[in-house]
Write a structure and sequence with these properties.
With 151 residues, this protein is mainly alpha-helical. The protein contains six helices and two strands. Strands 1-2 form a two-stranded antiparallel sheet. A hairpin with a 2-residue loop joins strand 1 and strand 2. Helix 1 packs parallel to helix 6. The model has no long low-confidence stretch (mean pLDDT 95). It catalyses: Endohydrolysis of (1->4)-beta-D-glucosidic linkages in cellulose, lichenin and cereal beta-D-glucans. InterPro entries: 6-hairpin_glycosidase_sf, 6hp_glycosidase-like_sf, Glyco_hydro_9, Glyco_hydro_9_Asp/Glu_AS, Glyco_hydro_9_His_AS.
């Protein structure tokens, strides 16, 4: 989702620029209007939130189907209340390799997303698909803020 969120944010920013400049962009036989660019960005947001072939939201905690085994140490280890003893780096491997869902939900985090075949393994070792990052989530915050005001 790294490229999807960043490019969608740029599409939205460029759409706003074109709208204020009262311009469109010719692109082959298509004309990219501000409305078309906004529509493309919105479709990508909808895909991330569950309008996709798997019917899976890639945002943890959003909708009824979302990633449960994300590649995130704080989410995959038991809480201090459940396990007050120190968990060393190597000792965390048993939790990392566990097939069980993460005991702590990192609500709002967007993971890497599906692979090239549009499949999502929902497994911690597949960090490309299951790891949430700031460079995925930050542009999405901008998109969600815009679309919450301009549905």
């Amino acid at each position: 989702m790294q490229h999807v969120t960043s490019l969608s944010f740029l599409l939205l920013a460029y759409s706003n620029y074109l709208s204020h400049a009262n311009k469109v962009v010719p692109c082959g036989e298509t004309t990219a209007s501000p409305a078309l660019l906004k529509q493309l960005a919105k479709r990508q947001v909808n895909y991330i939130l569950g309008d996709n072939p798997l019917g899976l939201s890639y945002m943890v905690g959003y909708g009824s189907r979302f990633p449960r085994r994300i590649h995130h140490r704080g989410s995959s280890l038991p809480s201090v209340a459940a396990h007050p003893a120190r968990i060393g780096c190597k000792a965390g491997s048993r939790y990392f390799l566990s097939p069980n869902p993460n005991p702590n939900l990192l609500v709002g985090a967007v993971v890497g997303g599906p692979n090239i075949l549009d499949a999502f393994p929902d497994s911690r070792p597949y960090f490309q698909e299951s790891e949430p990052t700031t460079y995925i989530n930050a542009p999405l915050v901008g998109l969600l803020a815009f679309f919450s005001v301009h549905p």
